[in-house]
Amino acid sequence: MTRTERALAHRWRSLALVCTLVALAGAVIVIWARITTEADRADQLAAEADRRGSAVTTLAADVRTLRAQVKAAGRTPAAPDPSQAIDGLRDRARVPVPIPGPRGEQGPPGKNGTNGVGQPGKNGTNGKNGQNGADGQPGADSTVPGPAGPAGPAGPQGRDGVDGQDGTDGRDGKDGQTCPDGYSLQPPANDPDALVCRRDGAPSPDPSPTTSAPPAILAPERRRP
């Protein structure tokens, strides 16, 4: 037996412990790497699910906008409402998308419950009649006329009336002059308070007294009062 074999024979337990620890460390490292890989993959799946949820939300909003525009134009949209076409659209379009975890083991069924024993209740007594309410105040007098309403718009202009017939001509009036044609009433020179018929254009008489016969004076009925 060599010196090396003797040293290994005395320290085989330490070597076995070291080997065991190395093996355990390797297993832990491998498991940790697998867990990290699965966590990264889960993060990638969650990010992709969030992106798809955002895309679904955007498309649903665009479809609703297009439907509103088509209805505003008086037409019937061919595409249905997204919430009616897809079941659970609100939950599917929610961001961040809830990712369910692994399903757990089914638990044992529970025991059947005992039937409850209830007793019928007693009939209640009839309540007392309430007191009569107080008389209300009299209403406002409806015969009072309300305020005048606003003036209505002016009506259309009426048609022009028919012209009336011309009246008959009246009779000619009498001339107020009592003198014959070619004569007119003039005051005499000797009596300014009187009027006599004198020929138009005749010369004025001489105011001095003369021996000639006085001019003929018209009868009283010919004078103007």
UniProtKB/TrEMBL annotation:
Pfam families, alphabetized: Collagen
Signal peptide: none
InterPro entries with a match to the protein in the record: Collagen (IPR008160)
Keywords: Collagen, Membrane, Transmembrane, Transmembrane helix
Amino acid composition bias (Low complexity), ranges on this chain: 122-132
Record region (Disordered): 71-225
Superkingdom, taxonomy of origin: Bacteria
Membrane-crossing segments per the record: 12-33
Protein name from the UniProt record: Collagen-like protein
Organism of provenance: Streptomyces piniterrae
Classification of source organism: Bacteria, Bacillati, Actinomycetota, Actinomycetes, Kitasatosporales
